[in-house]
Amino acid sequence: MKSILDNRPVLAKQVADVAEVAGYLWQKGWAERNGGNITINITDVIDDEIRNMKPISEPVSIGTTLPHLKGCYFFCKGTNKRMRDLARWPMENGSVIRILDDCSSYVMIADNPVKPTSELPSHLSMHNYLIGSGSSYKAALHTHPIDLIAMTHNPAYLEKDKLTYLLWSMIPETRAFCPRGLGIIPYKMPSSVELAEATVKELADYDVVMWEKHGVCAVGENIMEAFDMVDTLSKSAQIYLTAKGMGFEPTGTSMEDMQALKEAFNLPK
Ligand code: 2HA
Ligand code: ZN
């Protein structure tokens, strides 16, 4: 079958990276059923032939207006599609969409008319924010990591930056490679515009945010980086839980050692 990826190695590599990450999410147990979603901004690698491609769907409303997305293109996991299927057959379980000039609707252009993720309002709002703020980030990831979600069932961890410092202090990598910490968003209806707005607000301070009792949302330069940050935070959560399971409270890295890391890695917080 003909594919938009044919003879477009750069675009094909980006979709292959999404498929690879989708497989990791499934293997980690973070992607039950259709859980989680991925979108990547592929506008930079779109050529004139793609720009002229006829839509394969009617215009669909996003539910919100996103002025920076005019004429942008995204590869999106499909709604109700499984990560484990996206891993093997990305173009059957995801689609390429074009944002229309009204900035509030999109059409699908390839390869199959797969309706994008139910979290499209939050994903596209994040991309809109990233473009508007001059960021070079192109990827947004939402997934359901067991350990991190479990921690949000304790109200004590919902306090601003409580989890950030706890997770940073479990292993130096987390401090170094998730340097903006972990934002917290109080529970909101999945897929809602309210959840999208709250998520975007937190991106001013964080690359990764928790949706209370639901999951995590991360943005990054590319999908591998977004995944790596969540993976690192989850590793920290597992170290914490393992220590607790052995019956003791982990001591955590001292404030002094944390400060030394901040200076050595030139970290922002
Ligand atoms: O796409 O995870 O939050 C399935 C979800 C919705
Ligand atoms: Zn979810």
From TrEMBL:
Signal peptide: none annotated. Transmembrane segments: none annotated. One of its GO terms (cellular component) is cytosol. Keywords: Lyase, Metal-binding. InterPro entries: Aldolase_class_II_sugar_metab, Aldolase_II/adducin_N, Aldolase_II/adducin_N_sf. NCBIfam families: PRK03634.1. This is L-rhamnulose 1-phosphate aldolase. It comes from Dysgonomonas macrotermitis. The lineage of its organism: Bacteria, Pseudomonadati, Bacteroidota, Bacteroidia, Bacteroidales.
